[in-house]
Amino acid sequence: xxxxxxxxxxxxxxxxxxxxxxxxxxxxxxxxxxxxxxxxxxxxxxxxxxxxxxxxxxxxxxxxxxxxxxxxxxxxxxxxxxxxxxxxxxxxxxxxxxxxxxxxxxxxxxxxxxxxxxxxxxxxxxxxxxxxxxxxxxxxxxxxxxxxxxxxxxxxxxxxxxxxxxxxxxxxxxxxxxxxxxxxxxxxxxxxxxxxxxxxxxxxxxxxxxxxxxxxxxxxxxxxxxxxxxxxxxxxxxxxxxxxxxxxxxxxxxxxxxxxxxxxxxxxxxxxxxxxxxxxxxxxxxxxxxxxxxxxxxxxxxxxxxxxxxxxxxxxxxxxxxxxxx
Amino acid sequence: xxxxxxxxxxxxxxxxxxxxxxxxxxxxxxxxxxxxxxxxxxxxxxxxxxxxxxxxxxxxxxxxxxxxxxxxxxxxxxxxxxxxxxxxxxxxxxxxxxxxxxxxxxxxxxxxxxxxxxxxxxxxxxxxxxxxxxxxxxxxxxxxxxxxxxxxxxxxxxxxxxxxxxxxxxxxxxxxxxxxxxxxxxxxxxxxxxxxxxxxxxxxxxxxxxxxxxxxxxxxxxxxxxxxxxxxxxxxxxxxxxxxxxxxxxxxxxxxxxxxxxxxxxx
Lengths: 326, 267
Known about the structure:
The structure holds 2 protein chains of 2 kinds.
Chain A: E1 4-17, H1 22-30, E2 33-47, E3 52-56, H2 63-70, E4 78-83, H3 92-95, E5 99-103, H4 115-125, H5 130-143, H6 159-171, E6 177-181, H7 189-206, E7 209-213, H8 217-223, E8 226-231, E9 234-240, H9 241-249, E10 251-257, E11 269-275, E12 278-284, H10 290-300, E13 305-309, H11 313-323
Parallel strand pairs in A: 3-7, 3-8, 5-6, 6-7
Antiparallel strand pairs in A: 1-2, 1-4, 8-9, 10-12, 10-13, 11-12
Chain B: H1 2-16, H2 19-46, H3 55-67, H4 69-72, H5 79-87, H6 90-94, H7 100-128, H8 142-173, H9 179-190, H10 202-209, H11 218-225, H12 230-260
Helix pairs in contact in B: 1-7, 2-3, 2-7, 3-11, 7-8, 8-11, 8-12
């Protein structure tokens, strides 16, 4: 039995359908059409204690919904979920003591007052004993480099500074599980690095289980060994990042600039697209050597320029989304 | 309990950040107080009809209203809790190991109390040194004063149970305009904030008696000025407690119903 078990979770929302325009608005004033949107459909996975899992998928795939169900905020329509011995939405009050949540696009800090005042409030909300609170706070201040910003009213902090405070606020009660919903959204490279290093460190030192959603693939690359890919509310891939890379990294993008027409039929050429000043190819480097490919082409036509794109994780994901039609 | 007190402390700190707002509040309330008093003075001078309150009583009633307005007003447009619902920040509130109803309850009462505490002392001192027709009177008697304190406390608690309902209703309607706005308008009038209850037409007085609103501020103020006797005052206190219980339970149940189908807006 794993630490977190999610079984066949489904959640749908009722959304009012409205078309644009005055006439439609007037119509919907009297009669409203609703449609049921299924945010997540029959999702199952399990996570072990101490794992870092990257939870990825395009916008609207159901990532945040899953996080909210797992953190006890939303009640699913059907399905089971056990974390330890608790069901998040049924044992909410007890359960949330053990988890920390960071929603990258929201703030839990009080806007008008310094972050430290919010920390004090959280200490009372989570009934943290004074000594432990001071110790944890000191630790977090040091690791996240908060010393100079903790006494400044939150409204005067930059996004990166605020996000570091947000993360600290979510960890004051030393949770067993940390949910990070886009923690690096809008951060610059240095802040991102700092946040990532910190996440790695607490995972290592405190064995905190971390579930992370993001659109920034370098986050995933830096942190998660395992990813769960979700699209249109369903789990599409659950496994190691390395395996996914191996499957997709052998695809190469080659752009050939030429004025002539290319006719090529070779095994390993997956795609050919005519572009303004040439052609773009996707080839499978396992089946077809790049130099062989270029050899054949250069015999056929006059090549002006060649671009070979090495697969990066972002492209890979775009590809993956395309392949899976999500 | 500590956590809820902590909310109060934080609200207090937040209010202290805005000194200008506190002074502006005092100025506004003085202005409205004088306007009301002048209108009633003209009314009393010209009127021949039987009037339910003596003028000095009424003036004191109005000043009590203005100095304690934050504790008794049914008007509530505080962005804090409404925006939690509207923008979906309620997600964070639900990730806390505390009862959401009581968290909101203490946020609201903390906010209201902080505002009054910041303004009350300078305001009352000023009212006590005003020239005679405008000056605030002392309580009718010591027993009246003691029951005033008790009913004022209960009134504030009752006010909070009513106001806490607004964001709970907003959880259904997803916007604080509309239904909540209508409720606020009715509550303002029926609590005697616009016109004291004794000036209501008879039928409206009967309706108002069956509703909780007049027990928030009208009751304690009229006890203070001696318009309501000791026995009636104690009886009123009992009704206040019953209403606190009813409105509190209603809010609590409604909230837990809506939490089951909560929607977090804005992704």
